[in-house]
Amino acid sequence: MITAFIFDLDDTLVQTEHLKALSYARAAHLLAPSLDESTAIDAFKDFVGGSRKDVARGLLHKLGLEEAARARMPEFSATEPWEVFSALRVPIYNAILADNALLEQNIIPGNAALLRLVHAQGYKTGLATMSHREQTTHVLDTLHLSGEFNVVATQENVRVGKPDPEIYNFVARALGVPAAACLVIEDSPTGVLAAQAANMKVIAITTDYSREAFASGALLDRRYVVDDPSTLRMVLDCVLKEN
Known about the structure:
This protein is of the alpha/beta class.
């Protein structure tokens, strides 16, 4: 029986993945001024849901920016090229997140309403995000969602990011519930793989960044994929009845 819900944050409760994509694109432009912003944003789709380190490494490789970043390592006292990319990108993203009105405009109403509903109904609730704690706290406070969670886990709580199941296992232990009693609400392939590896039930609510990856049903049974937000409650009811 499902007794706990675990939510992802970025593009599950608030539309921040496109804001992250924009910040990476602007940081990439600082390394390669000739790089088209849309190219970097499109490349980001392959790394949605990953940790800051994994995304930075992946994008540097895909965009061919490793040597450009390596050349600036002394400037940032960096030991690896991805640290340069991250150092360039973080201030850009923090400036975007500082716009509280923008964050409020990007809350995902149906998913946030689901969080509030299940918490009010007595389910235990957890957050499992690969964002950093400072940014996560700011987003949750701005959107008035902090009080809806019994447990909040961020990148600082784990050694390995999604698709490794560590963060989901961490949240389940902190909630005091077995994995089989957890239902995960995710948006990205990386997050779904992490939930599956933790032996948890999962519903994927797709976005423009992830819809294509779930289209075939190979990653997750299409019964548990929500492309149309109006069908979320129906899919949820089916999962709860099965468990």
